[in-house]
């Protein structure tokens, strides 16, 4: 059974491990966007780069006779997820999205919930604050004119310098992060507020626990919606879905 995994997340890497163990049943190709400069690669066939939009992905699925697609991309990777929905519908290929549950505030959290990055930048206000940005390299532009704050960006890879807010310092680091380490960082940098996406998962959740303990404010950007008919919350459920397709025969399902 030929499977395409749109990957790059913790859940995707967990799924790779399961699929590696079942290579006799699943002929898997992993697709990575190529955004991260040193990605963790599985022992599976890997392609890096875009498909050329939804039409390009549809053509690739048909050309490679793909039987099923698992979208295990980041909750904020709306472009590829939207392309996957349209391409799979056009090619009549079953599609599953793995979407980890989002984070939710507790009564002890100091969260400001905002719908997008522009709103997050406005929520910082005019008074200078010490800001920890953990929004990724591609969402920095709204903060360039957001005020005379003291900026610290944490990123896996170094961003384009032209996108950084004035005077922004860059901390290169890859999760998962421990709560004690996060607390040390917040204390050392005297952070007033964290700006982050509601990515969910455990790899970067520790900063929220550290912020709660220290009373640090959090500006939380909500997830954009993705219209996928079939969604599961974890890797085991995704593997069960693939097992079900394999058991019933992907070719039969594609004819329905």
Automatic annotation (TrEMBL):
Alphabetically sorted, this entry's keywords are:
Cobalamin biosynthesis, Oxidoreductase
Quote the pathway field. Answer: Cofactor biosynthesis; adenosylcobalamin biosynthesis
Sorted alphabetically, which InterPro entries does this protein's record hold? Precorrin-6x_reduct
What is the residue range of the signal peptide feature? Answer: none
Q: Name one GO molecular function term.
A: precorrin-6A reductase activity
Q: Which GO terms describe its biological process?
A: cobalamin biosynthetic process
Key word Oxidoreductase present: yes
Is Oxidoreductase among this UniProt entry's keywords? yes
* Protein name, as recorded: Precorrin-6x reductase
